[in-house]
Write a structure and sequence with these properties.
This protein has about 400 residues and is an alpha/beta fold. It folds into 2 domains: about 150 residues, ATPase, nucleotide binding domain (Nucleotidyltransferase, domain 5, 2-Layer Sandwich), CATH 3.30.420; about 190 residues, Nucleotidyltransferase, domain 5. The protein is about 35% helix and about 20% strand. The strands form 2 sheets. It has an 8-stranded mixed β-sheet, sandwiched between helices. It is globular, with a radius of gyration of 22 Å. Homodimer. It holds the Pfam family Acetate_kinase. Pathway: Metabolic intermediate biosynthesis; acetyl-CoA biosynthesis; acetyl-CoA from acetate: step 1/2. Belongs to the acetokinase family.
Length: about 400
Amino acid sequence: MKILVINCGSSSIKYRLFDMNTETVLARGLIERIGLEGSRINHQPAGKQKLKWEEPIPDHRVAVQKALRALTDTRYGVIGDMGEIDGVGHRVAHGGDKFSSSVLIDDEVKKAIRELSELAPLHNPPNLVGIEAAEKVLPDVPQVAVFDTAFHQTMPPEAYLYSIPYDLGRRYGIRKYGFHGTSHKYVAQRASKLMGRALEELKLVTCHLGNGASVTAIRGGQSVETSMGFTPLEGLTMGTRCGDIDPAVVTFLMEKKQMTVQEVNEFLNKECGVLGISGISSDFRDLEEAAARGHERAQLALKIFAHDVKKYVGAYVAVLNGIDALVFTAGIGENSPRIREEICKEMEYLGLKIDLDKNKVMGEEKEISAADSRVKIWVIPTNEELMIARDTREVIENRGKM
């Protein structure tokens, strides 16, 4: 079975084609600047040279056509024709509380995605555009929606409800949803295999640490708590997002700076986080370089980030009543020994002890816990696209079995 995975943004499409018999990537690509001047295609067939070229791409339907043309090209393609594609998996940011698993896309699913655009205005609309574009180009191929929020729908009410009037929360869907679910799900499953233990018996804390970052408590393979909330703004200090703050700060800023609702929302999402603290960058690599040179605010930004992660790890060990493994993933989690060390420092009381030599790893799958650590500590590179492909295959194979 061959599955095409599509991750559609407002002006870009990322794609990967998987051979699910071996779970290998046959080709991957990125189409950028859709509908803009300078549209370009980056296409990488497995084991072959990466190709780049520019050509007009007016909309997402044409972009999907270009991707399929690249996949079937006689020179650099990897399949003979589009008939070899058995399914298309689409990453969708927000499924609200309507979807607790990946689903076959039909008119009702598209309607729900459209309605949930109110909660994810930057993500759901382009996700839906990608779905409709793929349907037009591949009308007879099953399309599957894989939601970032679905994995977290197993959280109990005491974890996902906010302390606002209950009826108000229900009416407007104001609750914690959580994000990065596909990544947390993947690394949890992978940790189970690496440890040789059933996922159902494990208590895990997974840390998806990138420019956007979240921590999740996983019991028996199910999310029971996560740091992102109603939107991805809640939780950890991030690249440009403020994370947890006193809600009164919002109205205080609006009054003092005469900010509109839109302006304060943009400010909290794009001008805060480690960028706001450091004053130099939202890229953690830049901050680590500056910190090594003695830049005090870069050092402070890194300490605040590590402190936030440590705080959530400790809280989630309490929620889980124990921990079997701590997992680091995503750009920072996979590639920053310094930040992993800072997070794990002085956590021995929880049974977490890092091995400084093992921790020098970057971008590789490896256990980094000390020999006398009671809890395993892992670096596991995430693979959200493979998780989407797996979910897509499962949905397609289970059609008609209900």
